[in-house]
Amino acid sequence: MEKTPQLCVMGGGLVGCLLSLYLAKQGYGVQVYERRPDLRRADLFSGRSINLALSDRGWRALETIGISEDIKKVAMPMYRRVMHDGQGNLSFQPYGQAGQAIYSVSRAGLNRALLNLAEAQPNISLNFEQQVLEVDVPTNRVTMLNVASQQEHQITPDVIFAADGAYSMVRLSLQKTDRFNFEQSYLNYGYKELTIPPAADGTWQLEKNALHIWPRGQYMMIALPNIDGSFTCTLFFPFEGEPSFKSLQTPAQVTSFFEEVFPDAVALMPELAQEFFENPTGSLVTVKCFPWQHKGKILLLGDAAHAIVPFYGQGMNAGFEDCTVLRGLLETHQNDWETIFNTFQEVRKPNTDAIADLAVYNFIEMRDKVADPRFLLQKKIEAKITGQYPDAWLPLYSMVTFSPDLPYAQALANGQRQEEIMRQLMGHIETEADYDKPQVQEFLKTHLSA
Amino acid sequence: MEKTPQLCVMGGGLVGCLLSLYLAKQGYGVQVYERRPDLRRADLFSGRSINLALSDRGWRALETIGISEDIKKVAMPMYRRVMHDGQGNLSFQPYGQAGQAIYSVSRAGLNRALLNLAEAQPNISLNFEQQVLEVDVPTNRVTMLNVASQQEHQITPDVIFAADGAYSMVRLSLQKTDRFNFEQSYLNYGYKELTIPPAADGTWQLEKNALHIWPRGQYMMIALPNIDGSFTCTLFFPFEGEPSFKSLQTPAQVTSFFEEVFPDAVALMPELAQEFFENPTGSLVTVKCFPWQHKGKILLLGDAAHAIVPFYGQGMNAGFEDCTVLRGLLETHQNDWETIFNTFQEVRKPNTDAIADLAVYNFIEMRDKVADPRFLLQKKIEAKITGQYPDAWLPLYSMVTFSPDLPYAQALANGQRQEEIMRQLMGHIETEADYDKPQVQEFLKTHLSA
What we know:
Two copies of one chain form a homodimer.
Chain A: E1 7-10, H1 14-25, E2 30-33, E3 51-54, H2 56-64, H3 68-73, E4 76-78, E5 80-84, E6 90-94, E7 102-106, H4 107-120, E8 124-127, E9 130-136, E10 141-146, E11 151-155, E12 159-162, H5 169-175, E13 181-196, E14 210-215, E15 220-225, E16 231-238, H6 251-261, H7 263-266, H8 272-278, E17 282-290, E18 293-294, E19 298-300, H9 303-306, H10 315-333, H11 337-367, H12 373-388, H13 396-401, H14 408-426, H15 438-448
Parallel strand pairs in A: 1-2, 1-12, 2-8, 5-14, 12-19
Antiparallel strand pairs in A: 3-7, 4-7, 5-6, 9-10, 10-11, 13-16, 13-17, 14-15, 15-16, 18-19
Helix pairs in contact in A: 1-4, 1-10, 2-10, 6-8, 10-11, 11-14
């Protein structure tokens, strides 16, 4: 009988937990190492509610471990974008067909649920406050730091799964090996989380089943609903220039700026100036690298392999999709780690590159284009095309968000082709009614009929 | 009186030595730390002769420290490319005007000359076998390893100049700071150095004042002359596929392959099979990053800031040009390191990005295009254009190599414009004589007259 390989998963976040559950299901024993303390400990609750957008690729993964119904109960469906202009006037753009939504979920809540599932498995051990310092790649010997005691110790797992995030220490060790391609690139924008609390009666102060956007050209604010009646707002804002995080230096400047550009929001943000200076300014990084695996002994996945900016709401979904693909390969190739990992990286790399580029592009769309009446008209025309040619045309957003079987790279390629068709088509269109003009219909028939 | 800042230069290679001379000339005391032993120690001579192409940007720097004449005496001018086809037939392409050459120089010899100059300065101290392990960026505290004793110690210079190469440890520390953009990308090709020894009478077995190329489409070999009568050949070859480093596994396979594809060279390479397996296979990396400086306390330069592939022969020249630019800024801004470093990176970054991209492009030209008669015809036509319109048209290669006052980015932009003109022009040209056709002359007059 073969010796059971010792597997370890670095990172007890969303992807690390889901992966450990899949590995355990295949009969492996799994050690999970997480740098931070157990976030289920009540004393760690920070009071801030960071939420994520969960869509079909993510739900598909949660269904496999039987918690999608429980999570859906505490998730807020968002059926459309609500755009707020400078005077507080609203416009709307549905995300998909009737009933289709993306879901705002609490990152911490979801992580706790996954940790509980992992802990309930006899062949998964969770180890908190254990930080990877370095991996000696030729031997797979990992130097770990016990964060509480500050003692170092070493482990030598047979296989290391690195789900340790955008700043992965495992990846840093791989980076020093020969021919490891690596790129980390930052936007010149940071983000700041702010709060719209519930109304006095505990209800939401904005339309609750929507993602709110205040598009302002070179910057924007968004708000996602939480189940407690609050919204978490995120300001995406230049680090430097005018206006920027650097140019707003006093509470009075912040309040005055928000009153000028986000008047309908600022009325709902009593703690604005305090939060603005107390909450950290985050940065926005894209990480690309290759290869993701080393000799069947180390595999990068999730943000450690492909961190992306948040503007398509696909970071967690892409990480969960990694687990979905890996799960299939684990079943097909059993213990043949080199084949599993090589196939995994070949299949996934083009798709995670595609969603990385789409995410950067969507920032431009959200902060700028959704404020443009021509863009919104184009989206309405596109919805009509989808209605008329449902098999030939699905909007890019729907391909990414609501079509979990369509690889991201295919969605991107289809989207580029459609964009070119739309560009030509919009030359003939001034109003929604123009859609019915003969030359428009003729053009569509030519381009979209099989 | 202001305290004299303590400066250290990490890296005692070509760029580190030249920079330390410039800093010393400005009156600063400089500590130079080099990871390797002093390569002037005779027992370190490895017997292998690695050469570099020195061109006008490099010569300009060497003139400032008074050693250009001495170096020229031991340099081999190369006036043209000599292409060797599969039957050993030769074709030729001059590098520039009559008398213009790039120079093959010994890297070790040049480094020794620079070390001697640095050592002769009372305010420069050279420290060998001192490896940077880590920089604590907030405090500038550097942990160094004495490679001989394996003892660690710490230094805290006021300013760190990191000339520690493509795998810079200083840069690795900066990479962990927020918003540091970084990319390392490898070609799927490796390189192997091989030797054509001198003839029995000590003379060169190929035309000595030329750079020889055996272009073979997907791979190539080149040879640069050395002053001792030998040539150093470099095979640029895929790591994998057919043929590749992976596919050639035995001496018999290597010999048979070389006899088939490089028949005229293999006859001159008695140690081929032995060298092929004894010499290491190098990899080819491009490094881009930004920012290059941190708060006026750390500056990356040379390969540490912008490592490039060797196909334009500009790696050392670009590093020396960094020193030239920095030298001017040191004089203008005295001690105002933040201004010096900010200006430096703003001026240099677009230019080093340009030469990085040009270097990758030139690999395709060398391994593939120079074997194409149409390409060589185009080069002859281009020489005619330069002759007729000397103020309006300088070939890209000359702009990069022989025009040290023209920034690389400007050379690249001019080159792209010229490439488009050539593309249109070559539609009218079948032979060299067609250059005199009226429509060709008319076209040139329209596009190139001021």
